[in-house]
Amino acid sequence: MRWLRYLAFALALAFLALTVVNASWLAPEPKGAVKLIAHRGLHQLPDPAAGAAEPCPGTRIELPAHDYLENTVRSIERAASLGAHMIALDVAPTADGQIAVFGDETLDCRTDGSGAVREHTMAALKALDAGYGYRAEGETYPFRGTATGAIPTLAEAIRAAGRARLLYRFTGEDAGEADLLAAALRAAGRDPVAAGDGFYGADAPVSRIGAIYPDAWAFSKARAEACTGAYMLQGWFGIVPAACEGGTLTIPLDRQWAFAGWPNRLIARMEEAGARVIVVAPGEGEDLRGLQFPEQLGDIPASFNGYAWVDDGFTVVPALINRFDDRSQAEIDAAQAALERRRAAR
């Protein structure tokens, strides 16, 4: 039938037009290289065998390949020295109005303390053993007694990061925590806009910190999901959704094919919209998922100049930036053994 031929011709023309509109090779070559975000500095990865019913998620860990604990000064310093471009930290207010760097809402899982972090003074948090609750190989506690005083203040974390940029994650949902963080940043002499820092977390504190620092990178999970979902639909027509203006787009490694114009055309569109792009690991979860294997870097296009979220900074960061790799042979051997165990558990 003639109308079927017309329909087929129209569909072919539409396909050709969309192909040209989204052709990555027709876009300008992006400037710069991928930038790695070391999640919580260097930290212990959860044991893949730990089930969803684990009472303290994150504290049942793999056999440790190193002795760094998340959100601690040592961890931040080492991630920065290995070459991480940015370090993501968890921040929480204390009972005496300071900002502690700690990821859980309560102290019961990771430390020898109990109760909400926000109900304790900074001095009380400093008295705790931050490695008390980590459990590996059944009932062994490899870090118990090794990390008393390791919960840092914001100022200590900033000094530990050196020239690395910081991404502050609000652990609470109260907008007032943004004001407390801004005050702590001012007291520490840190201008987050000039330093290239960013913020993420729940909508309320993110909105408030955006009002305080309108030129800073700030995003919530909901806002990133809105940008990502809208672009996956509208991007094929060359449209940058309103949700992506000044926003954040997340691209899972296993779904790169679903993003129109990936990589160069998409990058050009997002740069024009003032948006950031973060590559994350496959899978789903409440928090951003980071790379856990050096070989995952090979799945990222060479022209990509945005961010990659990294969970195993001890192996992934040196795999990309080997000129700063100061790991000893023993550390490298232990890290490789951990990688092999993790690959086998997939």
Q: Could you give a quick summary of the protein structure above?
A:
The chain is an alpha/beta fold.
Please give a structural write-up.
The protein is an alpha/beta fold. The protein has one domain (31-345): TIM Barrel. It contains eleven helices and nine strands. It has helices spanning 2-21, 73-82, 122-126, 154-161, 176-187, 192-195, 203-212, 221-234, 264-272, 313-320, 329-345; strands at 35-39, 86-93, 99-101, 165-170, 198-201, 217-220, 248-252, 276-280, 307-310. Strands 1, 2, 3, 4, 5, 6, 7, 8 and 9 form a nine-stranded mixed β-sheet that branches. Strand 7 (248-252), helix 9 and strand 8 (276-280) form a beta-alpha-beta unit. Mean pLDDT is 92; it is low at 6-18.
How many strands appear in the DSSP assignment? 9
Shape: globular
Low-confidence stretches: 6-18
Helix content: 25-40%
Number of domains: 1
**Major sheet size, sense and barrel closure:** 9 strands, mixed
Give the SSE string: HEHEEHHEHHEHEHEHEEHH
CATH architecture: Alpha-Beta Barrel
Strand content: 5-15%
Cα-to-Cα separation, first versus last residue:
52 Å
Structural class: alpha/beta
In round numbers, the mean pLDDT is 92
Task: Please report the first level of CATH classification, the CATH class.
Answer: Alpha Beta
Please name the CATH topology: TIM Barrel
Classified in CATH, the superfamily is Phosphatidylinositol (PI) phosphodiesterase
Radius of gyration: 22 Å
How many helical stretches? 11
Brief descriptors of the model:
nine-stranded mixed beta sheet, 9 strands, single chain, Glycerophosphodiester phosphodiesterase family protein, TIM Barrel, PLC-like_Pdiesterase_TIM-brl, 346 residues, GP_PDE_dom, 11 helices
